[in-house]
Give the backbone structure.
Amino acid sequence: MKNYAFLVLTLVSVLSAAQTTRKYSNEFLNIGVDAAALGMGNSVVSHTADVNSGYWNPAGLVNLEDSQLALLHSSYFANIANYNYIAFANPLDDRSAVAVSLIRFGVDDILDTTQLIDDQGNINYDRISLFSTADYALTVSYARKLPLDGLTYGVNAKVVRRIIGDFASSWGFGLDAGIQFQTKNDWKFGIMARDITTTFNAWTFDDDRLADIQNAIDGQNQTVPESTELTLPKLQVGMSKKFVFHYDYTLLTSFDLNVRFAQNNDIISTSFASINPALGFEFGYTDLVFLRAGAGNFQNELQLDNSEDLTFQPSLGLGFKYRGIQIDYAFTDIGDQSAALYSNVFSLKIDFSIFR
């Protein structure tokens, strides 16, 4: 019965999100990629400059000198859910670059017990089957330098595929756009606008399969939910600067503001928009070893006594780079400060210059 209830609650919660406009939609696209960025509290929109820029800010892709490949894997909820990411980027010339990336967030091998009890009321364990619920996002990115020195722009076209076994599935499409600007004294600024077209998801449902769970929970899931879902635009604005000490030591500092055009529990919240700051630091030694720290996801969390406490999500990170191969690690949700979706993340980045 626990597995059956889990199935029903999964379908109710996910399918009920298929409304016209939602505060939280396609949230798996907000988790982030690259352990180096996650270790800095995700405050990288102004200085991202590698294959992972296709996610954070495609304008940064123009900084590529050669092809790059990125991989990431992370498990959540005691290994129940898996998050995987792969990306490839390639410079076209000295002024433009392209990238393609794929993200999958899924829960596999869920027990489908809708047929456990037959029409005569008999329990038959042979009637149990397995299914998966998974979210996919394929993104194609393009970036180019503008005539103004230090100014670059980039755009993303993304296709979103979401599947809940054979109960329901959807296709979605959206666009992102970003810019970066570097001043002569090395200050960097960035803007990333996500889902500028209000990313559209169109759902289809298997009526026969939905009928199997129609009355599983009284008063819920009685009708097929709406078949369209719109993801509201989001804006990320950031600035950063790298300081060099004695040639061998560097300190990268960054600050971002994450803006959602909806009211929620962010530290700054209005009926028009909610704003959440993020801070990040990276200490480097000879461009070989990196120590990182960050803080973000500042929330006014409502307590049981109706008071509000300010919570945040701190993070730490460690990186190692040698001859075009970079391995990064991020540890976040330290001390259970917030309900983060991840805790330990590893990522790998390979620069193809090592093969030349």
Summary: The mean pLDDT is 84. Residues 2-15 form the longest helix (14 residues).
